[in-house]
Amino acid sequence: MQSNAASVVFENITKAFGKDVVAVDDISLSVEAGKLVTLLGPSGCGKTTTLRMIAGLEMATKGRILIGERDVTRLPATDRDVSMVFQSYALFPHMTVLENVSYGLKFSGFPKVEVRERALAGLDLVGLKDYGARLPSELSGGQQQRVAVARALVLEPQVLLFDEPLSNLDAKLRRQVREDIRDIQTKLGLTVVYVTHDQEEALAVSDRIIVMNRAVIAQDGAPRDLYDAPASRFVADFIGEANIFDCTVESVSDGKAAVALGTYRTALPARGIQPGKAFVAVRPNRVAIAAAGAANAIPGDLKKITYVGRHLEYFIDTALGPVFAVDPDVNADFQRGQSVSVTFAEPGPVLLSN
Amino acid sequence: MRKVDTHRRVHPTIALWLIVGWVGFCLLPWYGIEDGFLSLIWLFDGYPFEPGYAPALFLLLQGEKLWLAPIVIGLLLPIFALATAKSARAHSTLLILAGAFGFGWLIAQGFGIGLRGFQFEWLEALFGPLGDRQFGMGYGALLAATAFLFFFTQGIAARGAINGDVFVVGSIGFVIAIVTVFVFFPILSLLTSAFITEDGGYSAGVFIAKFFDDKLWGTACMTFSGRCGAAWNSLILAILVGASTTVLGLCFALIVTRTGFRFKRGLRALTVLPIITPPFVIGLALILLFGLSGTVTTFVADLFGVQPTRWVYGLPGVLIAQILAFTPIAFLVMIGVVEGVSPSMEEAAQTLRASKWHTFRTVSLPLMRPGLANSFLLGFIESMADFGNPLVLGGNFDVLSTEIFFAIVGAQYDQGRAAVLAIVLLAFTLGAFYAQRFWLGRKSYTTLTGKGDAGVHPQLPAPFAFAVGAIVAAWTFFTIVIYGMIFYGSVVQLWGVNNTLTLKHYVTAFALRITEEGIRWTGSAWDSFWTTVQIAAVSAPLTAAVGLVTAYLLVRQSFAGKNAFEFGTMLSFAIPGTVIGVSYILAFNVPPIEITGTGVILVVSFIFRNMPVGVRAGIASMSQLDRSLDESSLTLGANSWQTFLRVVLPLLRPAILAALVYSFVRAMTAVSAVIFLVSAEYDMATSYIIGRVENNDYGLAIAYSMTLIFVMLGAIGLLQLLVGKRSIGRRGQQAPAAVTAT
Asked: Chain B closest CA to A104's CA: distance in Å?
């Protein structure tokens, strides 16, 4: 099995259903060949529509789609070199596993013997070599999922699409299948576009994540950038948990902003934000707790402590509002109801304009 | 890696239709041949120069029928399109031009020039008398027209319609064309006669006077002071029949799929009996049982000493006969739907603490709604269109379909009145159609998803199963009695007069002698019998094919004018056979389509009469197939035709079987349209039987009907073997203990 990985480019794509419903509003994006890019967002944000436009199952209302530098905007799904793994797997219930995997190969002009060889190789790749004669209904959910992946893989498509492939699997299996998908993708150097609404899944598998919200791209970047430097309040909140506080930017100089959070003062990278009202987002693991009375800290009351095995979770009431913090030190000696001081680790808080 | 190239210049589909078009133009006889559609006599009788058999090219070379010359333009243009890329503007323009011009010219010359030269006075005024004439279209014209149609659709597809999908655009174009020619055109010819005055002019007054006739809308029966209008009678009857057949059909489907009942196969066979019975036979049997001197009537009269009454003539008799006749159709529709309800949904409901009864009422039954609605609609329309039973049992209970028949055939000979009645009938059936739409709403009934589904249908709760079983048992018993009567009637000398057993009716009809030259078919019924089998065998697969392709287009594709498209395909079903028969005679007795008196007109009328059943069965099962199945096939590189062939069709086997069985059987048992369309050469079994009934030769008639029933049973068994069962591997179907009746 080899890779024909190609890039995908969207140029100002708009998709409208009927007159009023705009599912995707003038987005531009590009996926480099051989990379796994995730479309992430809440339901109804347009991520699945975007995926289906790559597949050719929906036609763009406006704009241009290029796959491997070729304009495919008007090409139907049949004529695009793209395979898709469906959320429901869409295995043909009347065909055996092997027939399912051979299905696409039959239309690709391979001789019969080669169709069989390639299909078996595909099944081997997903570890289902001996299941060829079964019907899909005789497989478990995870096995069905792997058949669906094999069926798409054997075509060696320019782009492989996944539409929430893990949503029908249990949690443990989900982690394993997601690693399997990532392994195969890196091994074969495939271009993969992956749709999910699960941010952890997205962070784990992606080379790059495109966060979508209300038909537009909210942010596009590497998982780490998205987590550590969200571009907006929406992204900060959607990717991982975040404490978001109102703040005032008092002055900006040399890219450093002097920020006031109530009585607490700190200096943060300005990220182009001008003096005035703004927001600060802080990840729970960037919140530090110390005994009450520390200098330049935010005083608060510890409302609740939860033990979840690998870390402790703290819920603290402060003048800024409720603060949520996690601490890997499960032996820390804090009591419920105790007064504490809250500070932020470095680098920690991120300044946001909206 | 998929090789994709939109700029390639090889267009196999266009090349194929070019060849078809040119073959039609240069090689095959252009005009229809008197000797019949399949006769090859023309090959040896002066072809290719004899004008009656000559291809268009030879006609033109001999300087005849010069108006056919422009057709060449339409056949030349696509050759240039072959040399252009599919995405090029010139490609689509050439194809659209060629198709539109060629098809348009064929129609224009066909209607413009007829048996007596120019058809319209203004043409004659413009060009002077023609001094020539032409006949109906034949093979050549047919092929050319088909080629033009597909040039046109390929041009449209190349322009980007429906993602440039040649198969889908072509299918839509094809269905629209045939429905227009064989449904709208004849109906239009008939409906215009609703406005024709006695002296040949047009007037709305004529229509209004006939529409507000008291025989149509009278309500005297509500006050027991007289008879109601035919319109009210038909409506009440149809609602009763639709509701009862749906309930009965559901009962049968439930017994077969959700109980431990042991004789499921027998039950299936039994429910099929009434549809394979020529309609008037049930009416006849009902009279033999419940008529004034019927077996049951006299028995009851003797037992209780009451006066026998004529209660069976009228609403009760027609109602019973129609319920007997149409319940199996409801059963065929319901069985697919009841089996299609995903067991995991029912299991989910049970695990949610719903009792068996609750599960059935809140999950299974609502999921069967499309089936219920479809089955009611079918029963309603069938009842509206039924002709045989009201004719035999109606008495003073006038319904629209028989009124139409008498308006045309009876002493009144009033085409206008027939047309007005047809409009009323149409309004009712369309009303039912929209009510069904409204009821189903926009809910999703997808229950067969792309995920393999493992589960077993729950059994019905015991008391409910008992009630359903009782209904089924009663119906079954009644049916057995009816058929016992029919069989008994076929082997007695003379019903009610001389009850000695004899086989003489069978011998008269189906005697054969084995001589040295082979078998000699000496029985009187053989001619009509073989014609019927032939016509039914030809029309059944065509009907199923057209019906299922149409269903696929309606469920899986979206295109402008889809609602009008659906309306058009269902229209022919809403029109009773009598109307179809008369309108076909009016429309197809003269060129350009001159097929009256041939076998073709019978086949065509069966296709369009029965196609809606295929469409509805296809729609009902297709809406239970998840769309992602099609989509995944498309993303795997199959085109829409391959997807239809390999994914949709195999999963639709129950629907295919229903469509095939139904259209075959209907072709053998249909009466209403056939009566008008048979000819001496093509006599059908039913019209032959009616002829025997009219001569009071009941024994022969019933014996012939009995034979037909056995033939159709054999045919159905054969079809079930051929089509097989869809294997989707639900656990219930694989367990050896589970009964998988068919």
From this structure: 5
In 3D space, the residue among B714, B720, B710 whose CA is nearest the CA of residue B509 turns out to be: B710
Q: Look at residues B624, B551, B548, B613 and name the one whose alpha carbon lies nearest to residue B368.
A: B624
Answer yes or no: do B451 and A157 touch at CB < 8 A: no
DSSP helix/strand/coil, B460:
coil
Nearest CA-CA distance, residue A52 and chain B, Å:
10
pLDDT at site B740 = 29
pLDDT of residue B733: 37
CB B555 within 8 A of CB B619: yes
* pLDDT number for residue B736: 32
Residues A120 and A130: beta-carbon distance below 8 Å: no
d(CA B188, CA B211): 18
Q: Do domains B227-398+456-496 and B505-723 have the same CATH topology?
A: yes
Q: Between chains, do B631 and A90 touch, taking CB under 8 Å as contact?
A: yes
Annotated domain spans of chain B = 12-159, 227-398+456-496, 505-723
What confidence score (pLDDT) does residue B574 get?
65
Owner of token pair 């029912």: B346
- For the cut 70, the answer to whether the pLDDT of residue B447 exceeds it is no
**CATH class of the structural domain B505-723:** mainly alpha
Question: How close does chain B come to A206, measured CA to CA in Å?
Answer: 23
Judging contacts by C-beta atoms under 8 Å, the chain B residues touching residue A77 are 631, 634-635
Q: Do A91 and B728 touch (CB under 8 A)?
A: no
Cα separation, B294 vs B292, whole angstroms: 6
Angle between helices B166-179 and B139-158 (to 10 degrees): 130
Angle at B333 between CA B330 and CA B338, to 5 degrees: 110
CA distance A335 to A318: 16
Domain A8-233: CATH superfamily, name plus number? P-loop containing nucleotide triphosphate hydrolases (3.40.50.300)
Please check the confidence at residue B7 and state whether its pLDDT lies above 60. no
Q: What letter does residue A129 receive in the DSSP assignment?
A: G
CB contact under 8 A, A88 and B640: no
Q: What share of chain A is helix, strand, coil (3-state, %, to 5)?
A: 25, 35, 35
Contact pairs from chain A to chain B, CB under 8 Å: 131
| Residue in chain A nearest B159 by alpha carbon | A74
| B729 contacts A137? CB cut-off 8 A | yes
What is the dotted CATH code of the domain comprising A241-352?
Answer: 2.40.50.140
The CATH fold assigned to B227-398+456-496 is MetI-like fold (1.10.3720)
Contacts with A156 from chain B: Cβ below 8 Å:
1
Shortest CB distance from B164 goes to which of A76, A137, A155? A76
B742 burial type by CB count under 10 A (0-12 exposed, 13-18 middle, 19+ buried): middle
Distance CA A176, CA A182 (A): 10
